[in-house]
Amino acid sequence: MTTYTNPVLDADWSDPDVVRVGDDFYLTASSFGRVPGLPLLHSRNLVDWTLVGHALERLDPEEEFARPRHDGGVWAPSIRHHDDRFWIFWGDPDHGVFQVNAPDARGPWTRPHLVKAGRGLIDPCPLWDEETGEAYLVHAWARSRSGVKNRLTGRRMPPAGPSLLDGGPVIVDAARIPGWFPLEGPKLYRHDGWFWILAPAGGVETGWQGALRSRDFFGPYEERIVLEQKDTEVNGPHQGGWVRTPSGEDWFVHFQQRGAYGRVVHLQPMRWDGPGGWPVIGDDGAPVLVHRRPALPGQPPAAPATDDDFPGGRYGRQWQWTANPRAGWATRHSGDGLRLACVRTSDAHDLRRLPHVLTQRLPGAPSVVEVDLELAAREPGARAGLAVLGDAYCWIGLRRGTDGTVRLVHRFAEPAADAERDAGHSRPAPEGRVRLRIETAPGARCRFSHDLGGGFEPSGPVFAATPWRWVGALLGLFALAPAGSAHGDEEGHAGAAVFTRFRIRPL
Question: Whole-prediction pTM value?
Fold first, then answer.
């Protein structure tokens, strides 16, 4: 294969940043309130990526992320390599700038360190200047927390990065740049004697990529638009990172907002317009769909894993909880299959409120999602299923009735609704087992079906998936029981459900 096609990551890897170390490339992305956070992807050719781990085991403060927080947590991280260590900085809009570091991308990573406390500090990026030995950090602002937006603040930083040395001035006030609103997501570099800030403006769906440069870190900066939609179908091409290959080729990784699919990742060629010139990204500033591959060693086709047989009850790296997990939600055992406890909850009427939903990203391409489910819980009201989660959600699965029988159910909730309702007719599931399927069509239109032993049958109308705020729609596996029962164990569990043979294949 001599060419590649965008997007190179066709799912919600939001706000990507990339770094090269030797012959290896590493990418991280926003994970917001999902756990584990700070995903780490690896590639040798910038086109084929695999998920190799996460840098953040749990979110702090623990109590604030005991419940789903889709608008909090990890925003727009930056990944760098300095002093033989990997460093990731990110902004939590409610608490400030954090960092973790590790000798290897696969860990072990340090616990999160709060570099700078404060509300509204987001999108931080460090720079260790090899020419002067100085270290700097630039960050943006979230108006929802601070009342400030459209500004970039610069700060000095000790080389080790544990804290900031000064209060930091505003080094770019985009209110003075006509049309550049909002300016955010800065990535800081040193090149050709200039300080460079690559930063998006104009909003996630309609914006562009800007470049700003100055001879001095604290400014003044001049600006230029270096990537925009033009006459292509790639809306809002921006926010990402620049990386140079060992042979000296330059490439730019960025996202495109695609509704319920979230922010998918594109790879653009990049060059410099002569010595002292500006970066030129894509095809003369327009995003490319198909392009020559980077001049890098061959690599077998690869993509982040989706399928899972859950060996020994363990789930793969692709899964994330919707909040900090607790012991006992998933039980290890000697066979295959994911054994999820039916956690008792007063929020059984609304999956969006549950911390114990195990999720992965909705594929950007039309797909078939399948999983086998057995409801082992004997308690009336216990249920488990496969869901598509967003501002609206829909799920199909099994529920134990008050008469002890198990029935197949299909339910959904609209964005403004505070409780779910039936999406299809309930029917008996005498064996307490079912194979569930979701077919996703263009536009994130989801068709649910089930197989109780006689082949697949459709269930309910087509469901149009919706994103959460900042987050694309998610596939989810869950098990629960309504609160208030006097039966079951002392940990608040009402038995369990077992999921086996999770698969995603092209439609």
Answer: 0.96
